[in-house]
Amino acid sequence: MTSSTDDFTGAVHQNPYLAAGTREVHAVITVDARGNPETAAPTAAEVIIVDCSGSMGFPAEKIVKVKEAVRAAIDELRDGARFALIAGSAGGRMLWPAEPALAVADSRTRSQAKDALRRLDPGGGTTIGAWLRLAGQLLAEHPAAIRHAILLTDGRNQHESAEQLHAAVRDCAGLFRCDCRGVGTDWSMAELRMICSALGGTVDLVAEPADLAEHFRALMATSMRKSIAEVDLRLWTPVGATVRFVKQTAPTLLALSPHRTHVDPLTSDYPTASWGTESRDYHICIDVEPGGVGEEKLAGRVTFVQTGAHGSAQRLRQVFRHTEPDGSTNEFPDARIRAIWTEDLALSTVINDKVALVTGRAELAKAVQDGLAAHRATEADLAVDCLNRARKLAEEYDEDSVLARLDRIFDPDTGTFQLDQLSAREEMGLDIESTKTTPLSRG
Amino acid sequence: MPGQFCPHCAEQVCQRDRYCEQCGAWVADLRRDRVEIDVGVAAGVSDRGRRHHRNEDALALRGSGPSRNSAAVAIVCDGVSSSARPDEASETAAEVAAESLVTALQTHNSPAAATRLAIHAADKAVAALADAGPTGGKTPACTFVSAIVTGNTVTVGWVGDSRAYWIPVAHANSAPTRLTSDDSWLAQVVEAGILSPAQAAADRRAHTITAWLGEDGQQVEPHVVTIEPDGPGVVVICTDGLWNYLDSVEELAAAVPAQALHDPLGAARRLVEVALRSGGRDNITVAVLPFASDLVDASIAPHLAMTIS
């Protein structure tokens, strides 16, 4: 029932009633964006960073499949998109084009890039920070474009310091979105997760090099469909309020709070990168100064804004459905998070089902990650406790893919986990799966 | 409406949503949250209730005066919550209809004809709101019920599920009567014999209305009923915020105080209080119009005598 001109259609889910004197307000905001490819979609700027350190040569098939995957990604580039290939070893170097700039995609440049790819030979170290810096340098020249990088690696950042990597990631934040793919099981989940969290992207495991081409094709196709660049979630909170967290809860779990920028004393922006036609969910938690019983406050107001190349923010067309406690609904051009203080426990103790769901899924992800951390620290009892809890949560919240992975190592006879059977590949797969979520139902 | 300031921090209150732009406090709309109107020959109360954020009901009354030698007129409208700007829809409908009724009665239309004219005028005015501001794809809409009490007749008109009742005073011969039938899903399936009243009431569609004022591509069909009471009593018109708690005519009649004939404002306050005490889940609006030829002749004023042909 929304106007056909809205870019973002959302809904606010919360129980606005708080027990007298309490201050913690939770809300889930679901957002469906409709990118419109017909209305002057901004240019896409893509950089593919291919790890070609020495380890990529073993087994020999690996580099062959990597090249195939990059070719598949190149084929997805639409005419007119800007792109470049970076070869990553000890330092990053331009694989194509030769000069440090982005080329315009057409049939000629696509085949030139593929020719350059043939000459790629593995050798040298892994310096992910330097690779990202080069990508940042190329993409900085295209501030109006939807900027995106794909980083493929098979190893750890061994030939530069952790500080160097962190500094490079900090400098690239806001410049481009980066999807990371780890091939094999010798790369570091923590490193790639840190990069993706800061740059806004996804991390995934490609255990089999043969699957790389499909991953790359899908990544580039998704990126080509992004048509709304540089969107920020703008959150207003009242005087005296503290934002506990702003999390993306679907399609992947992502903490946004670390990347907030202040607009004015009551307003902050949280980057959400570019959007296509897609659905995302957010969980917001705010502490507000308690009001008196019967009083109501606006605890937060969310809008989605687009930060243009010139730095000024522009409001996107948007509408949010709000459901009153009695079931009636209202639509407003902003997402309103409310707090109403009451002494009626029947009102204040109700937990909104969607808030419960995202909270449960976050607990599940934490239980899985705590369990795996305990496993790595050889604390078997703790690991089993955490994973048992994760298994219950996965059942409760219908996270079937996580449950399936847990069940592969679960022994129903003893009620325990056979952690000695957990391969590196299974471990990383479980870790990744725990952070993937399906958007909430829109009903 | 002029800007309002927050009583907590003296900052400007956002006019669109009524939250203070500094401390977030929700500031009541003093103009609409509680409305009491007493024109002597009729009185009414409109209340935001205990759960809703704003009052989307509206109330308009017109009493007789030297320049308006007619009767008591009352209109109650309930903005459709799922429509755009329901508060504006109900207020517009009530005010436009009140003016239309008074004019039509002064120009010697019968109460029934005046009611039809008023409903069409209100429908047109609500439909016009769609062009006057943001609608989010949904046009403004509201229900409507009106009552005109003259020296010897009671005329009610309605669209939607707002109701009118005739409540004779205790010693009169006639029984309390509901004068309206709801334009609602529930009423339709019960009348068609598809579901029992209890089954239909339990359905989530029970409260879905099937007719309203406002643009929907269809001509509005006013329902109009006129009665000639044979004794004194009061006419009660109300929104579902009241009758949700007093569904049967007997329950409603029992809640009307004995003094209603002489104190319509007290009666309206009392009925709103019943709804609030029962939970106040919706906005509540009630108007009470006394009917008594002896009152008309003796106590109020000579100009209440009907001049309508």
Q: Please, could you describe this protein's structure?
A:
The complex is a heterodimer of chains A (443) and B (309). Chain A is an alpha+beta fold and 443 residues long. Chain A has 3 domains: 8-38 and 229-344, Sandwich (Immunoglobulin-like); 44-224, Rossmann fold (3-Layer(aba) Sandwich); 354-433, Up-down Bundle (Four Helix Bundle (Hemerythrin (Met), subunit A)). In chain A, 31% of the residues lie in helices and 30% in strands. Chain A has 11 helices and 23 strands. In chain A, the strands form 4 sheets. A 7-stranded mixed sheet of chain A has the order 13-12-16-3-1-19-20, with helices on one face. In chain A, strand 17 and strand 18 form a beta hairpin. The radius of gyration of chain A is 23 Å and the shape is globular. The two termini of chain A are 13 Å apart. The mean pLDDT of chain A is 91. Chain B folds into 2 domains: 1-31, no CATH class; 34-178 and 206-304, PPM-type phosphatase domain (Phosphatase 2c, domain 1). In chain B, 28% of the residues lie in helices and 20% in strands. In chain B, the strands form 2 sheets. In chain B, strands 1-2-11-10-7-8 form a 6-stranded antiparallel sheet. A 5-stranded antiparallel sheet of chain B has the order 3-4-5-6-9, with helices on one face. Residues 65-69 and 295-309 of chain B have low confidence and may be disordered. Classes of the chains: A alpha+beta (443), B alpha+beta (309). Chain A binds chain B through residues 1-4, 237-241, 266, 288-289, 291, 295-299, 301, 319, 324-326, 328-333, 336, 338, and chain B through 9, 17, 19-20, 22-26, 51-53, 81-82, 134-138, 281-282.
